[in-house]
Amino acid sequence: MILTQCAVCATELGLTLGKKCGRCSTRYCGAECQVQHWKEGGHDQLCKKLKKAGGAEQYNANTKYTEAVAVAAEKCAEDTKGQTCYICTQALHWKTKEGLVRGCSCRGTAGFAHVSCLAEQAKILLAEAEENNLGEKVLYERWRRWHRCSLCKQDYHGVVRCAIGWACWKTYVGRPEVDSFMARMSAMRCLGMGLSAGGHHADAVSVQEAEFSSLQRLGVPEDDILVSQGNLAIAYERNGRPEDCLRTWQDIYSRRLELFGEENELTLQTANNYAWGLCGLERFEEAKALLRKPMRVARRVLGENHEVTLTLKKVYAGSLCNDPDATLEDLREAVTTLEDTTRISRRVFGASHPSTTGHEESLQEAQALLRVREAKLEGDVNARVNALRDAVAVMKARRDA
């Protein structure tokens, strides 16, 4: 994670409190911890090395980046075997010797790359836009290269997203908090999202709380603050804090409706996340009531193939089949809905994309629950036992995945 704690006692400092080493900027809660770290913690041996690397924060970013790239390359090793980077055309990176990754929706022989090459390409494109004053729209589009594949136009996911998040942070950590593009704050957001995608949920919370606090302190536009708050809500949910998650989504949804209206894509995404939080606390009737209108709006405004539309329908189906009071017709509606979303997701994103596997897992669970209910109504004891066994197996497999 980013350095928001005292290097000695781990007291939380946020981004502004405490003291810093005058040479390398290692952070402390006070003079006592700073002296102890120099005398007993080995900082006297490490300080010059940290300074040479650009300071403690830069050194930490470089180290975490190297670790994350190694994890991503190992995870992708089987998929990338025998392939070459579409940017540098080499199998091993000429300088870092890192392996290839692919963590998007590219299929076949497309989309293989080194994290270093993806990072360098994104860095060059953004620098060109800044130097030539190409405008906010171009800057935003080019910034997407830090989290979205330029070939398939889909976001990176998993450990690849995590490695690219560290690449982004190490590139812009030295920038001031406020500059022409808020690059440091944007990089912090990219890192937080990457940590979450890579399964480092506690670290993601720490980074995203720091970002949210910073944006509020800097007085940036409210839309940017709401995006940061949404990322924080996701991190709360993944870190086992459902009440904090739900309260945050409720606040964001109310504010986005007020600012942007019901047809805005971000408002629709927030409706989905708010409903997901309700389902997590087993408030299924509230979730179903919330989702019905956004689903209709999303189909009309975004289209049937859009990921937001598909996700709204999946969460609605989940609220149907996970409700203890669900009727047989509720379960059948859930299965039909998930069959549709799974078919579309396979076609749009590919079979291995997390969105597709999520729809497939939800469909399997809904089908299993429906078989249990139908067997119960038919009075077939053996069929009911088998259906229950299948349902338990499906839900256990999903929980353990």
Summarize the helices and strands and which ones pair or pack:
Blueprint: E1 19-20, E2 27-28, H1 31-40, H2 43-53, H3 56-75, H4 77-80, H5 115-131, H6 136-143, H7 158-172, H8 183-197, H9 201-218, H10 222-238, H11 242-260, H12 265-280, H13 284-301, H14 307-321, H15 328-349, H16 354-378, H17 381-400
Antiparallel strand pairs: 1-2
Tag the structure with descriptive keywords.
single chain; 401 residues; mainly alpha; Serine Threonine Protein Phosphatase 5, Tetratricopeptide repeat; 4 domains; two-stranded antiparallel sheet; 17 helices; 2 strands; globular
Would you write up a description of this structure?
This protein is mainly alpha-helical and 401 residues long. The protein is 67% helix and 1% strand. It is built from 17 helices and 2 strands. The mean pLDDT is 88. Residues 6-47 form the MYND-type domain. GO terms for molecular function: zinc ion binding.
Average pLDDT, all residues: 88
> Could you say how many structural domains there are in total?
4
Dominant shape: globular
Rounded radius of gyration (Å)? 24 Å
Structural category is mainly alpha
**Distance from first to last alpha carbon:** 25 Å
**Unreliable segments of 5+ consecutive residues:** none
Count of alpha and pi helical runs = 17
* Main β-sheet description: 2 strands, antiparallel
